[in-house]
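Lab meeting, action items carried over

1. Structure of the two-component assembly. Owner: GW. Status: complete.
Input record:
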Amino acid sequence: MNMNTVQQYIEQHKERFLSELLELLKIPSISADSAHKDDVKRAAHFVAEKLSSAGAEQVQVHETKGHPIVYGERILDEALPTILVYGHYDVQPAAPLELWETPAFEPHIRATEIHPQGAIFARGAADDKGQFYMHLKAFEAMMATGELPCNVKFMIEGEEEVGSDNLSDFCKANQTLLKTDVILISDTSIIANDTPSITVGLRGMSYVEVEVTGPNKDLHSGVYGGAVANPINALCEMIASLKDKNGHITIPHFYDKVAVVSKQERAEMAKAPFDLENYKLDLGIDDVNGELGYTTSERTSIRPTLDVNGIWGGYTGEGSKTVLPSKAYAKISMRLVPHQDSQSITQLFEQHFKSIAPKGIQVQVRPHHGGEPVVTPTDTVEYLAAHKAMEKTFGKAPIPVRGGGSIPIVALFEQVLGAKSVLMGFGLNSDVIHSPNENYGLFNFYKGIETIPYFYHYYRALKSDK
Amino acid sequence: MNMNTVQQYIEQHKERFLSELLELLKIPSISADSAHKDDVKRAAHFVAEKLSSAGAEQVQVHETKGHPIVYGERILDEALPTILVYGHYDVQPAAPLELWETPAFEPHIRATEIHPQGAIFARGAADDKGQFYMHLKAFEAMMATGELPCNVKFMIEGEEEVGSDNLSDFCKANQTLLKTDVILISDTSIIANDTPSITVGLRGMSYVEVEVTGPNKDLHSGVYGGAVANPINALCEMIASLKDKNGHITIPHFYDKVAVVSKQERAEMAKAPFDLENYKLDLGIDDVNGELGYTTSERTSIRPTLDVNGIWGGYTGEGSKTVLPSKAYAKISMRLVPHQDSQSITQLFEQHFKSIAPKGIQVQVRPHHGGEPVVTPTDTVEYLAAHKAMEKTFGKAPIPVRGGGSIPIVALFEQVLGAKSVLMGFGLNSDVIHSPNENYGLFNFYKGIETIPYFYHYYRALKSDK
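Predicted assembly:
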């Protein structure tokens, strides 16, 4: 494989690669919001078209019960190793809109302290349009120069942000089509632009919506206040009771299956660079706050969590209204670690939450989506290929880290397709994905496109050695 | 005073009285919402016009820094006793709109179980348009028949639902204009249509809005969850901690000034008819829930309370979003009893609420409006006049009761104008004021118009006797 010609091609076409990404970022493909169903479809067709023009074959937009899955492949030789690239073209909702410095779906490029060369500000810039699109462009470069060293398959879905509900069925129904040696995913972060890392663990997730009902109608808080359970007060009490004062989650049996991480591994993790003062400064907080007995890095990786992601009830408009409302709601997510499983945790939550409802309060728990935690080994050919590729382009060996986020399909792939995933992402934690002003560094976008062909190269070489 | 001619006049014009009220109810005079500023003004001018046409003089729409105050009077003779009628033409917001069976500002009349003769469904039907309008029509009837026995002054304001911010200044600046022997207010309830009652106590109120800030921007709950204080979780914990498990409020010194109600008075109160099973059935709750050691009637009258009236934060749209938000908010009101005062309680709340913020959380407390609790004696001329008037028209002696709601200006009137108020309301608790489907019985509307002239009659007679 002549890497020079590949890298030259990338260098020559980088302006176009970027403008294509900006086009994709203009499409508000918000999978959670049914009002954007057509936009999600439009994004799928955009991806399919770019796959085709890059040289993929069998390109199809597979319809599902929800949003479509885009597939495309290039099979050189059945004897060669196959890489399945997974990504998602759907994005999180952009709310609260007023906090965006430039509109979420009108990408702007501007320099920041972290990205002196510029960063792309747009919803989905880092999660995951900017990251999966690197793979399309790296593929285009290898195809155009005749240097593609492995078979490649692309599966780019449109429901990652809402739980990948239809991906499991699609994988099960298409096991032959999707047969692969490894799955390559860029939907995670590196520690810093001068400190590459590879994600070797992901937290799973249980996500529920709770509805708490007191009286059957909104009441006047003067007439009934003090005598009738207020669903907002009740919801607050119930949520507050889910953690003790050490930050430990109180749901019975919640920790039963949590794998104890060895002292050695914790000591190893502690070596990753982390600056607590900068962390606090960046977030504008006077102190961190989490489970007693664990460091910040541990709290966001090897320990499960419970966060309220949204709450609402009663009067939330201007001024005051003395209502004792009928209902209050919350969206609550729990991040899970090996070997918790999302279904059991959701059940434990539901049971417990209903059991703690005070007198005069009724509770409904609606599970949203779940996903399983994963930890990937670092002694495999695929990990090594990613390690060598990053070492080559960053000039520095990447550090294996456990991430706090969830990509539920990683566990699914292992189960259904029998293949391991490599989480070679190029984002930064400061990309503020899921938040206003999400952004992705130009450095990171181009570094990804540069690195990916090396992964193909080393992966084929290491597989041949075996 | 020839009461027969007055009552005949009322009987002859009752259809028009109702249609005028329906016109007033069509005006969305929501004082809390600045978008409705012009509607509030329109309602003020409607009231002024009706006062004039009923025979009032010196009618004026007084502008204030907020919404206007409508004044009008009819002075027969300085030697006669003067009655000041207070009411408010502003209404609560109508949200949640989707729960109204007919639109909030399109009044509909329909029969209900409680009101077989029909009830008017509209925002403000009972609170307070339907109630203060009875006074205009009773006045019209007394004027038209030449039977007005006392001097009368009307002061109908437009900021009651937002704390009557400008009424105090108006009263202080117009003490001569407003000079009166008694203040008559219909903005409360009777126990039932066959069980009249007069309100002799009102709770005061402290109302605050709290803003709880964690990180300076919305974060991804996977990347930061577990390590950074989540403002929603924190807000829930802080709110939950405001009451202990006996329903006692935990703010230090909160109860210091609460008047202890004697065993005798509690025994007297317990005689008022109250059907707990019907109460629960009406509200669709399996049990009541409040402060340990007190009955439902006591919890809503002689004891202070703390209710969250609204809460919001994070993602509240369709589907799921794994955000760890920067901010969360709540509107919290406390009902106060003698001799608590709203300013001290608001201060105690603010101090305490800030002191319980967990690590990594900042708190702002914004006071909305407050009002003082009152208890009125039952051995006065004005109370007796109301008692006799109701006894006459209901055929049954009214029961003195303490109400749970707040009409902050009652304490203000006593302080600034040196006059006692009589709370002769005609609503029912089932009118669901402040809630969707607020309604006011036709029986109650007409019974009020019928009763008010008797109050004038007895008040003049009793004053002469003295």
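2. GW to write a short summary for the group page. Key points so far: The radius of gyration of chain B is 23 Å. The mean pLDDT of chain B is 95.
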